[in-house]
Amino acid sequence: MSVLSGALAAGLAIPFAGLAGFTTEKTSETLQDLPQQFDEVPLKQKSTILAADGSPIATIAEQNRVPVKLSQVAPIMEKAIVAIEDDRFYEHGALDAKGTLRALLQNQSSGSVQQGGSSITQQFVKISLVEKARTPEEVAAATADTYQRKVAELRYAVAVEKQFSKNEILEKYLNLANFGDGAWGIQAAAQHYFSVNASQLTLPQAAMLAGLVKNPTGYDPTNNAKRAKDRRDVVIRRMLELNVISVSQANSALKTPVIDPAKVRPIKLGCANGPYPFFCEYIVSELENNPAFGKTKAERSNYIKTAGLTIRTSLDPKIQQAAQRSIDTHSRPTDQAIAAITIVEPGTGLVKAMAQSRGYGNKRGQTSYNYNVPKTYPGGYGGFQNGSTMKAFTVAAAIQKGIPLNYKIASPSPIHLQGQTFSTCSGPYKILEKYDPKNSTTNVPNPTMIEAAQKSTNTYFLQLSQRTGLCPIAKIAGALGLNQAQSGEPLRQVPSMTLGIDNTSPLQLANAYAAFAARGMYCTPWLITSVKDSAGKTVSVPGAQCKQVLAPEVADGVNAVLHQVMEPKGTGGKLKFGKSDLAGKTGTINEAKAVWYAGYSSKLAAAATVADASPPYKELQGQSLNGKPINDPSGSGTAGPIWQAAMKAALQGYPTTRFVAPSDKTQRGDVKNLPFVNGMNPEDAANKLRQAGFEVAIASGTVNSEETAGTVAYTDPRQRDGAPAGSLVTIYVSNGSGSKKNQPAKPTTTQTVKPPGTPTTLNPNCPPWNPKYPNCGGRGR
């Protein structure tokens, strides 16, 4: 006993020779291999995700822990833990020789480990080694009932006592210990069981927590209150034996209920337990893709759960509430169809809200899918085909090419496109099969771009996309963040592209439209605004990432066109509200399996969708929304009210805003003068137009005109409007119904003498509206 005691007191300078099953040689090797310094494991701390206003969204953690200083722990707690776990803690060194020798001799005589004799320092070492373990094998080695592990703990305990003071060791132990029911560390335990801070713990509370560390599961008061009370009372009596408390204090504490169930604060970890689970999971996904948090996804995931980060996000609770209230007003979780909306801020990319009709879970009316985001995120649904919301990008491509806003195209329904060729980025695309698209709304026969957008005229936009080419449309859409939400691949370039192509998520579409609101400035969706570590130091994360993708004047033109969609003649006219300028576009896909409304002011942009999200996908007609059958599903009538209610509430408090008016050049386009061909032979007129750099088509049939029958009545575009270089000019042939040759001769009248300098004839190449010809007289045709 004396020799062994001396060995222990000497800090394990010599091996434990003769202990059962453990040789001198093995012990010596073990001691020689152990380091002289104990590398402390960083505490696993919970990370907190916050909304933009600082309110909590979720707690992400492997262990629910809030480290505190010993000065922030009630003195009675310190006394309780020392009394029951190591009453000679402040008297002995790295280990309690009496307790350890007693345990060693008992274990040797029995041939197995029967007693523990660990000091608080040794317990701290053991817990730390378990915390360091990264594999099941390492955990098993750190908890094995072997002399090798015991010797290792003793040697490490010596190192710990050399590195830290007793109070520092006790502080570390209290922060590291498991107090059961998901509470790690004394602060989390105090908050969980009693809804108080560690500094406010009373004697019975401290005794209960001190008793927990021996068996956190067995003495958990939320599982077995009686067993927990019995263990607590053992601690109280031990404190009385050691004269740490008085008899009256002990008697009073023993009569106190072990816990008040009403004060037990549930530990809600993870996104699923937060108010915005879908948004939260998307945030975690973004963090796990940030190389600043680790080389691999596994390392990043572990860091996020254990580093005690404070993560502030873009989510605005007021705007989120507006979005969710609109969803809840217009839909139900148990509907066959789903509804979703995302709201973003133009000019920054800040994602302000993300709401959907089905909640998070696996019960009826719940889902694990986030209907607002692409499938490139693990929980993302991957969107829905975007329908006529694509027409906005065709408008942008046309304006960019110099096509005027009043550009007219004859748009019958249907049109026959078999044999027609559309240009793509990889070459011409010829339509080989029958393709006779129709208009889904009542349309102006010969609409301008604005009129076609107002009525969402399919045949106009198909022809317009043929004139612009599909490549510019695809490039603009791609630059504004649109790709296939299922795969991340670029949008396909096919003739029907302008009517809707591939799946798009509400997040992508809202953010793309936000670029129009920001006058061509596209910003990557921005969700994580700041990250700080447990020490308050800022961790580098991407900020606003914005780029001028469209010229401001092009975006101004798009805004002018889509603004008219929300005027009385437009499909979105009934959705207009407030005094600020608004712009938007409807979208309906084939068989109305999904409908959209995307729109914006200069302050906020949003995209709302109602869709069938349960394969095999069916048309919305007859499916339930808000508990009622959907009749005549449309972007304006089905998705539009969700967009309107959400945006109306979200924009409250924002100042009245106006879009920048498009420039005269944007409105008129980059046009060339058309040669005057009225009254000419159609073939001669066609040649003249081709020589001027235009494509020509001669319309079948004739029209009423004062020109001689069989000659050119007029062109479309009109000569007075001009046309972009290379664009199509259609010649209309006169039937002569209004010709002077078919009218009776008028009486001869005396000619009035005009003042000198007055033009006697009209100059057909001098249109009076064109600022290049300010001195033109007369009236152009």
From TrEMBL:
One of its GO terms (cellular component) is outer membrane-bounded periplasmic space. Gene3D superfamilies: 3.30.10.20, Biosynthetic peptidoglycan transglycosylase-like, DD-peptidase/beta-lactamase superfamily. Residues 1-20 form the signal peptide. GO terms for molecular function: penicillin binding; peptidoglycan glycosyltransferase activity; serine-type D-Ala-D-Ala carboxypeptidase activity. Residues 735-764 have a biased composition (Polar residues). GO terms for biological process: cell wall organization; peptidoglycan biosynthetic process; proteolysis; regulation of cell shape. Residues 735-781 are annotated as: Disordered. Keywords: Carboxypeptidase, Cell shape, Cell wall biogenesis/degradation, Glycosyltransferase, Hydrolase, Multifunctional enzyme, Peptidoglycan synthesis, Protease, Signal, Transferase. Residues 670-735 form the PASTA domain. It holds the Pfam family PASTA. In the N-terminal section; belongs to the glycosyltransferase 51 family. In the C-terminal section; belongs to the transpeptidase family. This is Membrane peptidoglycan carboxypeptidase.
